[in-house]
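dumping this here so i dont lose it
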């Protein structure tokens, strides 16, 4: 393991190096600097730093290569990338290769000092989880019948396999996670699975719905308030960021936050400190933030509705939960599991047999487009379990809409309806996501499928649907 307190700074610009060294001389860390990234690798082997701060863009060897080489030499070393705004996306990707964090240039002295402190475990449970990451048991394991599962999340499609791998990788780290997915795809369940598999599992998991509360209420929910801060504030109240200390805050539908709240949240994530509404004291914040959105946040940034800097802070590790219609392999597995759970819950006791699905039921379940995703499937199965009185669930126990609306050939929803607006939003999201993904992989669909966890066939179908063929 590298030497705690020893930092190597790598940057091809001498001024930048000096600046970092000057800032870090205020804290008791031992700094070595190097402007040639190739020579930096020798230094890593010789000096065994506990933390490496490296510029991303450098001639000959870039920051990602330094990261990869450093991790090969010493898997426990923490690496932080220093990046210009234009290359933030690359830095974000680097988190997947084991970077501890990245900071965007120009950064403040406090950004630099904070990140070094966190990397050396001076910030409580969060950094302990980070430094002990390698020792943490993987959260996703083989459940009953040898199938892969993480917490209560189940699935066996290629898409879910890669979600399980991501949960496994991300759980022991301190990185913020952004979960994308349509309503009912399991975003909250995945957030819980990450929390339960992290070193924060013994501390609270607190879900916060960012759209259901008016702005001022949400602000005082999150940050708390002091007595007299506003009319009706008769007593002081701690915010959820305090209540969740050492644990996880799950910000559901984060795109619903107002600009003011977005800036406050950004400050908390950067400085790891906050003040209650009407308060003057700064309080330390030690929470991991997992956010969820069913909207394309990048598009929201382009429209100026969501702060880009906040987006990058939250989107360190993106997890995409594809709609159920794109992971057909999971439908019957989930249906059988819900049947089992329902029967054992409703009719506990030995000998109670779980009905199975007959061919007609399977056909209907697999042919439907599941606009409400897993939640809808769960409800349909619960209803069928109540109706069925024999050993089989048949098509007669399933609702009529499953017969009427088959796959994506369903009639288009009426303009102006909620369904229509939702479909339009999903289409925009799909297209933007696909474009970025394929650009990153030079149009290589196999690689794009692997990274995104979407089946290759589905990618091909989406490329065709959005007319993106000729672009790549
Ligand atoms: N992969 C899965 N395995 C088992 N159960 C699942 C899975 N995905 C979703 N569920 C179940 O489906 C229901 C909906 O999941 P969840 O609330 O996590 O979705 P969501 O994406 O947060 O939805 P919304 O956007 O509407 O809040 C829950 O009851 C959850 O337990
Ligand atoms: Mg939810």
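and the seq i came up w/
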């Amino acid at each position: 393991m590298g030497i705690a307190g020893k930092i190597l700074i790598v940057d091809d610009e001498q001024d930048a190096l000096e600046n970092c060294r000057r800032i870090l001389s205020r804290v008791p860390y031992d700094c070595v600097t190097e402007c040639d990234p190739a020579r930096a690798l020798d230094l890593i082997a010789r000096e065994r730093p506990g933390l490496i701060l490296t510029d991303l863009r450098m001639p000959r060897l870039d920051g990602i290569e330094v990261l990869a080489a450093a991790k090969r030499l010493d898997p426990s070393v923490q690496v932080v990338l220093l990046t210009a705004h234009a290359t933030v996306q690359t830095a974000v990707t680097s988190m997947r290769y084991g970077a501890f964090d990245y900071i965007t240039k120009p950064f403040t002295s406090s950004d630099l000092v904070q990140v070094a402190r966190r990397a050396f475990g001076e910030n409580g449970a969060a950094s302990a989880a980070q430094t002990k990451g390698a020792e943490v048991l993987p959260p996703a394991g083989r459940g009953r019948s040898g199938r892969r599962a993480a917490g209560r999340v189940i699935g066996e499609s290629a898409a879910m396999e890669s979600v399980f791998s991501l949960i496994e990788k991300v759980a022991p780290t301190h990185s913020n996670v952004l979960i994308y997915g349509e309503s009912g795809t399991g975003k909250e369940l995945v957030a819980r699975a990450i929390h339960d598999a992290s070193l924060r599992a013994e501390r609270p998991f607190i879900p916060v719905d960012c759209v259901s509360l008016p702005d001022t209420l949400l602000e005082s929910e999150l940050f708390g308030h002091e007595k007299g801060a506003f009319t009706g504030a008769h007593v002081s109240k701690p915010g959820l960021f305090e209540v969740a200390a050492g644990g996880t805050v799950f910000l559901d539908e984060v795109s619903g936050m107002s600009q003011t709240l977005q800036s406050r949240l950004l400050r908390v994530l950067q400085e790891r400190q906050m003040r209650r509404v009407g308060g003057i004291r700064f309080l330390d914040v030690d929470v991991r933030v997992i956010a969820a959105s069913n909207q394309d946040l990048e598009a929201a940034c382009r429209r100026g509705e969501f702060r880009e800097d906040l987006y990058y802070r939250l989107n360190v590790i993106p997890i995409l939960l594809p709609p159920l219609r794109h992971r057909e392999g999971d439908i019957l597995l989930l249906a059988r599991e819900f049947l089992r759970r329902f029967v054992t819950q409703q009719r506990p006791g030995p000998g109670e047999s779980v009905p199975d699905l007959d061919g007609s039921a399977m056909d209907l379940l697999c042919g439907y487009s599941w606009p409400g995703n897993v939640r809808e499937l769960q409800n349909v199965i619960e209803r069928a379990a109540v109706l069925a009185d024999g050993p089989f669930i048949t098509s007669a126990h399933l609702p009529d809409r499953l017969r009427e609306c088959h796959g994506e050939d369903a009639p288009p929803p009426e303009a102006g309806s909620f369904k229509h607006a939702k479909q339009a939003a999903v289409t925009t999201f799909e297209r933007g996501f696909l474009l970025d993904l394929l650009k990153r992989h030079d149009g290589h669909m196999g690689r794009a499928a692997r990274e995104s966890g979407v089946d290759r066939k589905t990618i091909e179908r989406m490329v065709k649907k959005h007319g993106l063929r000729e672009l790549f």
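The chain has four domains: 3-122, 169-322, 325-409, 418-471.
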